[in-house]
Amino acid sequence: MNTLRQKLAGAALAVPATLWLLIAFAAPMAIVLLLAVQESPDPFAPISLTPSFAQFAAILGDSYYLGTIASTILLGLGVTLAAATLGYPLALWLARLPAQWRPYAFGIVLIPLLTNVVVRSLGIVLLLSPDGLVNGLLSPLGLGRPQGWLFTHFAVGLALTQVFLPFMVLALYDSLVQADKRLDEAAASLGASRIRRFFAVTLPLSLPGLRAGLTIVFLLASTAYVSATILGGKKVWVAGMIVWQEALTNLNAPTAAAMAVIMLVWGIAFAVLAERVARALTPWLQKAGAKPVALELPPELARKLVALGDTAGGIVARVLLGLAIFLLIFPLALVVVQSFNDVPQASVAGFRAFTFKWYAAAFDASTYLRDTQNSLELAAISMLIALSLALPAAFALVRAEFPGKGAVAAFWMLPLALPHVAIAVGMLRLLQWFIAIPPFWGLVMVHVVVILPFCISMLRTSVLQLDRSLEEAASSLGATRGLVFVTTILPNLAPGLTVAGILAFLISFGEVTVTSFLTTARMQTLPVRIYAEASFSLEPTVHAISALTIVGTVALLAIVNRFVKLDRVWAR
Amino acid sequence: MISRRRLLAASAGATLASPAIFGLNAVAQIRRGDELVVGIWGGAQERITRQHIVRPLEEKYGVKINYVLGGTPERRARAYQERGRPSFDLIYLNIFESRQAVRDGVTQAPAIDRVPNAKNLYESAKLGGYGVAFNPVTVVYDKRKGEVTSWKDLWKPEWKGRIAWPSYPGAQGTAALLMVAKLFGGSERAIDPGFAKIRELKPFAAIQGSQDQLYTMFDQGVADISIEFGSFTRSYAESRNPNIAVANPVEGQVIATNVACPTVGTKNQALVEAFVDLHLSEACQMQYARDIYYSPTVSGLNIPADLAPKLVMGADVNKLVDFDWDYTISQQAAWTSRFNREIAG
Q: Which of A69, A242, A344, A437 is the least buried, fewest Cβ under 10 Å from its Cβ?
């Protein structure tokens, strides 16, 4: 009886997020699936209910498409690996920084997410062009490329690593902050060197965060297409570009949808794999007292490796940290310089003359200011809704057992694995119903769909690592469940909630792929305006806006940090 | 000044049309409080049209004109989805998309008699809607590295490995492909020579996907030559990079047009036409010419002598190379696939 009630309670926690996705996501998703099994590419052909696998056959039987799929997956894996390698030292640095400096460090991590993609890409162009910094460093070593490094997989990978690095860092951050410092101290007191402590204590304890980070970055990197379009110069093709091109320039939704479904399949495969591996490596999270997996090396080899790690580890970690910070703040320099630069277009590299006119333009009430306000309101409301749906969902995933839990969890991650262009293609077919909804709430509906998987994924890690003995202690002292939640659980989730909230806010604030199909005359967001201007010629007003956004975010973080520490309660 | 003959014609038309007008109230009249939704590009184009069209119309009629800003592909995809029950009253498209949209019943063919300024449109601007600006495509290059007087100069050794080829599809890439086919014995319907000759130019320094991207390539020394809109490249050269020249090849420049396309099913027909009429007005056309060197699509404007040589006007308009855009668009998917495999890869 009791178990039935528990199951019902667990299932109830899963209801809000599921319901939201059923209303706002299942319909476009179903349309994408339906489009993928259409035989005729004609945009006006009636939807046929007899499935045809012609589109899949065409894609999978074509070596060009197969090559593109393979290179997209490899690129995604490469970016994920790079983000983990650079993100880990950064997250560690962030987690160990004194609390008063943390808002500014967060600011650094978030810079790429606060900077428009066109601006960021220009930074990469400056790095990789024939006379750019990378060639400048490599040429003396005989490794330079006279034609520069632009329009290569390396350029696209670098751009994607830069923009997705923050996701990795934030996913790791909460895990690292939460790790019980006493374990590290215990290992140290037993004489373990830093490198041994890292591999035996720090890394295993952060595996849930690492899993979330790897999954998120891989899904984002393998569905992205804007950076590839700009920095790959059409020489580098990724699957997302094919979806975009088929759906929009060729008006061939069925081929686009079929490619999107293929992308969805590999996205889910990666997520499932990451989940399985993480579970296998963290048995103590599933069953109390389980023995961790240990790598058995011949003692001689192990000794040598530890010695090598102890000598080189610190240097390597510092170099990686330096690289990561450079990669993140490089666009900032560009944004600040360009926002005061008196040049005709944003893509001009040299400094001409000082001006405030772009800031004046940014405050023009009729255009940017109104759009910025729209974007801020949209992001704030979407973030609050997404968090309030994700929190019970995270508890359902971690603490409840109910039938169909696996399927529900997979369903929640789908919006992340389906390329956003495909969501847009699905939404397009629903446009006539969509425009019946008030424009603001229509966009909120879609934005929550886009950010919900991030929130669930990150909060799940936070809930997983909650110290349940604290709750038991509170209960044993007579606290009601509500009181336990407010006094014990929420404060311990504060860093996780804050980090997930920041991320959700920024994704919504910057979302343009889906939004650009759904904006109406009365409801335009800032990124859509910037994108529209970039379609003609971008002016440095975007830089002024980026600079203001960065300053605003850091200020906000500093204020937040005064009230909700970005830290565990007991860690202080 | 409205001529007497035109006034007579207009009143005769009005008399004849009046029975129909009673039935089509919303279509034929502009009423206070009407709202128009226009899908257009951002940046300079938004600024100019707001000044010369939106403000005067809102003041004169007490209407509200709303813009949905964005790139052509998004609004085109949306207009196709909303065929017959559009949320846009007017969308701006490029030359071949506009003609296809008319054929597909998404947008209207022009009604020259209902838009006074449209009677001065060049013939090539009366297809697929109302052409509002000519924006021809030509070779643009770094004049320190060589000179270009013919499209065939692209095959000269000085440009080898330094070309930023325009991506296909897109106005520039389409113009480039068709022009090359035509130069080497092919045509729209015999495209093979085009692909073969472009392949000969490989390796490319880059494939460029937009004018802004190309200008960054020029700035950074990534490429020396490309195929692009001459108009905006000229303002780029003047304001930012004096080494870049806009060629006027002997074979001609390829026509490209921005087209205003009223949607089929708009409930604001009269207001849409008033909007287009102002876009074709001398003031608006002149502003486009002055600010971004878009050439006027109406004849008989008083263009200052310093501006005229930078534009395409009069007899030169008829020299612009034109193609069978209907056939071209029907081949777009197949050619895209070929371009991705043979040229870009």
A: A437
